[in-house]
Amino acid sequence: MIKHEFKAESKRLLEMMINSIYTQREIFLRELISNASDAIDKIYYKALTDDKLVFNQADYYVKVTADKANRTLTISDTGIGMTQEELENNLGVIAKSGSLAFKKENESKDGHNIIGQFGVGFYAAFMVADRVTVTSRALDSSEAFKWESEGADGYTIVPSEKAEVGTEIVLHIKPNTEEDNYDEFLEEYRLRSIIKKYSDFIRYPIKMDVTGQRPKEGSEGDKPEFESHVEEQTINSMVPIWRKNKNELTAEDYEQFYHEKRYGFDKPLKHIHISADGAVVYQAILYIPESTPFDYYTKEYEKGLELYSNGVLIMNKCADLLPDYFSFVKGMVDSEDLSLNISREMLQHDRQLTLIAKNIKNKIKSQLQSLLKDERDKYETFYKAFGRQLKFGVYSDFGMNKDTLQDLLLFYSSKEKKQVTLDQYVSRMPEDQKYIYYAAGDSIERIEKLPAIELVSDKGYEILYFTDDIDEFAIKTIMSYKDKQFKSVSSGDLGIESDAEKEKQEAEESGSKELFEHMQQILSGKVVKVKASKRLKSHPVCLTSEGEVSIEMEKILKAMPNNQDVQAVKVLEININHPVYQSLKEASAKDAEKLSLYTQLLYNQALLIEGLPIQDPVAFTNDICKVMV
Ligand code: ADP
Prior knowledge:
Keywords: ATP-binding, Chaperone, Cytoplasm, Nucleotide-binding, Stress response
Strand content: 15-25%
CATH superfamily of the largest domain: Histidine kinase-like ATPase, C-terminal domain
Mean pLDDT: 86
Bound molecules: adenosine-5'-diphosphate
Family: Belongs to the heat shock protein 90 family.
Distance between the termini: 111 Å
Shape: elongated
Function: Molecular chaperone. Has ATPase activity.
Subunit structure: Homodimer.
CATH topology of the largest domain: Heat Shock Protein 90
Number of helices: 21
Number of domains: 4
Low-confidence stretches: 95-119
Number of strands: 22
Oligomer: single chain
Pfam family, one: HSP90
């Protein structure tokens, strides 16, 4: 018997695979069952196009048989089979379809995961078997051939016999080693669970002989005796939920699938069932979870959807299907337009997958919009869990996605005392209001007490409260909404005063020019300016900022691990209608030391109001005592 050599590159690949310490060995079964299912697909197609061939549904199935005594696992199918030539061509060369890409990947790294994520087809058998025998009889042929290989050193093909058309693959399961348990691949329950996990939705029955107990004949009554009996069962459910008609399914069905798949332990807030028939054909079941997974806002969280190719699971978490801002979405996609052997690199450039991803993104967006519109309570629950992620989405990638996301944002409103959308805000803006006003702070309660909000509130304008550290960054990325710019209540020009008011202010300011210059010298390096406030009513003092970085942003940037010491350009504003202003004026005329004391005190108070640390708290308390005695 002549022993054929594998082609050189195939040999290397095979060696690597056989020797890889691979944790997901179990996928070999998925690969072989998928091949079997493909072979049945082919005969089915033939039957559809060839009148001479009758396709009788019951005749087509895959059978998995474990024989513990002989340490063999057999996978047989009633598919189209292979001729001698096909055995040679198909199983003698590995560098086909996805495997070439696989090889490239592995020039540099060891690629264990790649085997798990994508099929490498038939050769996966060598991960669990030290000898593989393939006996096949092709359609329209009376003879059969047997292909056999013990791995990298080659294979043989000899004539053989087989009663039916189809293929039978016998895996001689490897003996256990200290590290590795191969026995598990001979265990009925283990095989069942592998089939359920990866091949549940294969359209043809996957049968197995299952051992059960039944009462012995004649032993019924009080003390029945039991005997084992073997019964052939179909392991897979065959019709996947995503292929079912939406009308046939209940909310419970979707919920059950969510839990069966372990997408989450919560109750999903919403499911999205897609059956697309357009440029790309696919089905998807997606879920918006109700609560934040514990690791969601950490680096450990991995986004992605399960990816099936025509009912066969090819990837657990296909990240390319979801944009980061929708990374909370769970679920699966099945498409017959995808190759089973596609590699991660190829996926990124796959036109079909790109189309699916785009389609999915739009569906999620429109579902969230309708949730917002029709089921506000639910949307608010969602927003509580994942709103932060949407805001990150607005801010990241240089604001590329702000248009997609801005209408999904909610902010707490000073008027409504609850969350509102930007659209709600803008649509009820009084005609004379130029800007969308916001105030940033640690909490609603704190913002409510900010002196800086006084003027805008008094004017009757609505203010959005930003309590999330990402809020102001996100809004600065959006810049304007429906032609209205955003304006912080702490920013220099609030755009509220009338010309007459401005004139009056300027006149008063010029009277205190010297005083403010003096105060600014006292605070040199801390504030760039001291000026009369246009926004304060009852409070004597507040801090505002000029330029891009606000005081809130400075706080947030300071708290970040790679503290970049970004400072807001600060301005100390004094309320010239407050009695304190008179005290400042008097001190300025008579007592330089007192002016310095008052200035420091007011500055530190302003810091406290903003929630910023006081540089020297001891000096501050001493200063207070000085005023008291
Ligand atoms: P792939 O399935 O990606 O082509 P495989 O290595 O799994 O790669 O299989 C190589 C080829 O061998 C298949 O394309 C198919 O033509 C043939 N083949 C494998 N298993 C079977 C089978 N059970 N019945 C018929 N043909 C098969």
